[in-house]
Write a structure and sequence with these properties.
One of its GO terms (molecular function) is L-valine transmembrane transporter activity. Helix content is 71%, strand content 4%. It is mostly helical.
Length: 297
Amino acid sequence: MELFLQQTVNAIALGGTYALLALGLAIVFSIMGLINFAHGELMTIAGYILMYCGLAGLPFSLSIALAIGAAMLAAVLMEMIAFRPVRKASGETMLVTSFAVSMVLQVLFQNFISARSQPVLLPQFLSDSTRIFGLVIGVNKISAIVATVVMLVFLDWFMKRQKHGIAMRAAAEDFAVARLMGIRANTVISAAFALSGLLAGVAAVLWVSQRASVDPLMGFTPVLKAFIAAILGGLGSLRGAVAGGFLLGFIEIYLAAFLPAEFQEFRDPIGLGIVVLVLLIRPNGLIPAAGLKAEKV
């Protein structure tokens, strides 16, 4: 029972990171119909800012703020420079653009920083553990869970109470009508990218705090998992992105912990098989977007 509870905590921490990343993807997709595969590079940018801040001896709290701010700024610049010129093009063009931006940034990281993994200096307390109800839990796991809860509460408030959040919800529902009501396209799309950058920055801090390193391809795997989580939850659905992220985290951790040793090498295919099974039962995702009309035929 103790092992099960321990792994459940690990699953919540990992699932929270996936949920934040999936939310960033879902917010942009709900407004623009774009899956931004360069979202992972926002994580990498935040990771490198953490690394350089650590080398400069800055306080960790200030390093976190600078890393998240850099991810938000990079997301807004990414939209202005790369995606705004092709906004009226086909979805395929925007998708190819996102891949191009991702690869260009990866090459820049490799050529101007390093192609190898770089250590990140972290405070000692993140390596400590504490005992809660008989469970030994790492401080970094607790921090990840708390940060995820805070961000989800903030996002819920932002989307329901703040004018830019309300504008994004309106644009996601019907962009053409929202523009007729006076909502500026550039403003709402820039706000969506800034919010996705915020979520990517927080996810990067959580990811780096558990691995203490950063490399040019750091964001690829977690964003690929976040994309799977977004589809699992219901592409374009914010609540679905959260549900899909947590479910994927639980699938990964439980398989790693409880799958027999002789099947561990098949862990990833089994995990994807479970995802496919869920989608066979719920083809539109766990919590489909309101405007999704796809049907299983």
